[in-house]
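User: For a benchmark we're assembling, each entry needs the component sequences followed by a predicted structure for the full assembly. Here are entry 17's components. Please fill in the structure.
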Amino acid sequence: MTRPAAVTWRCGAFSGRVAPRTAVFTLLTLAVLVAVSGLALYSGHYPLTVAEMSAILFQRADETADIVIWYHRLPRLLVGIGAGAAFGVSGALIQDMLRNPLASPDVVGFSAGAATGALFTVMLTGSSFWVLPGAMAGGVLSAALVLLLAWNKGLSSARLVLIGLALSLFLMALVDIMMARLDLLTAADIMKWLVGAFPSPEWSDVALIFGALITLGPFALWQGFALKRMALGDDIATALGLNVSRVRLKILFLSVGLTACAVSVAGPLPFVAFAANPIARRLSAASGACNGSPLLGAAAVGACLTVMADLVCRSLPIGADLPTGIFTAMIGAPLLVWQLTLEIRKGAL
Amino acid sequence: MKTAAYPLSAGGLTLTRPVGPVLDELGLAVPRGKISVVIGPNACGKSTLLRCLARLLRPDQGEVLLEGDPIDRQKPKQVARQLAILPQNSTVPEYLRVFDLVARGRTPWQSPLSQWSRADALAVERALALAGVEAYSLRPLSELSGGQRQRAFIAMILAQDAPILLLDEPTTFLDLPHQIELLDLVRKLNRESGKTVVMVLHDINLAARFADHVFALKDGKVNREGAPADVVTEATMRQIFALDCLVIPDPLHGCPHVIPR
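Assistant: Structure for entry 17:
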């Protein structure tokens, strides 16, 4: 047998190949997401039975329980799913593009840029209306700055990561300066958001993040085709007919856009963008096999991670009013250390 | 498509690096349907030339014509359908299976919506067979020997189905039997499928044996070109490589054979 196991589909001029393991993995992750979502709706300080819950979800009774579900738990769950998926895709885009598992938006400074931009506009205008434009501007500016500094007749991955890291540190200092001018209560709230938290999101936040996923997601999947070829190195990708620099710019733009939207609703949740793609890859064995895009897997894993972290954060005993980002960091940071050891062992660092 | 006199040509190619000029107003025209070999001393710009020809590197001045038209003004996808290059150093991930690597060669014929047409499947099967890598098509690159690996890459550029093949030192890291095996394969591709081949080779004797046309580079210029018998001579070797040698006819193949003194 010379062909790997894969399901080939053809329909007129359209065709593709899907590895069974990748498909099964994506479906399994979605199943886990559904299960965790159910749990997230069900559990909380206000006790609800399953029967009550389904009654509220599908009939809308006018009671406290209705408010708990419709104005608290459901938007929070949906923001978690949307932001997690957006972070997952945006991380996968950049990591695969630069062939560097360390180069995720939270590591190369895009998240920090978006957060700084959002914070800056909030401080300037005093309202949260401009958070998204601020986050976009901050993300684009930081990306442009990192690119400008890292560009040297092309984009080398080591330069990008190091300059991104330096920019993140600088932005953190900027944020600290801004925070020093705030009163204590606001500062505490913003501090929490800066770690990554979405304690009481509005439905407009839900609309924002899903709007972003619906508009940018298809473009990201489209770039998945080029992304897979980029894994072969710039020379071979060019030889195969890709315009490498242009593909890079498009992917960067998509990644920054998704990151900015996710940051503006959920704060710069650390490590979700970083961890989703490697986890999806390892479990789905999507390492270049076939043509199925690993982006969907990364989105599903990102959503799962975020909802799980948020669930843990909510189910802690009384008084522990901790931001969700702490828990994504607790999952992600060990992964980062592990990844670093792998890279060091390979001699890549 | 109109047919230009030369499938691939270059004029006035100049590329300057801080250390000095690498290519210096270099011009050349690649004969169609022949195996051309670029030889020259280290750092004479052989690989740079090949990379410029394949638009992997943009020269400071001068231009490369593919079928008569400037290569950088054609669509990248269209160029990739006509010209395939095997670069010297590839950073291909080691976990990739041979089949998947070869399938990537189909990229210029695919799109996000058509990623595995019947033509793709057929071309990949054919490339696997032609390069003789079917036996290990499911193995990841990390498990292959140098020779198998190089064949897998050849299979990839064969799947690309381009009439022009550029090979940058395809025999590096191979032992002599594997070098011959690979060059035999290249010759077979040229004779049977009519591919135009341009390759950089270090070994002058192999170049003399497998080339139809030799470009001898020195100081970023084509110093001499022509049939192996005309280029691989004692005088040229002295001039280009500063090599004092004896050139005799190869007793087996009749091509010139260089014996350094």
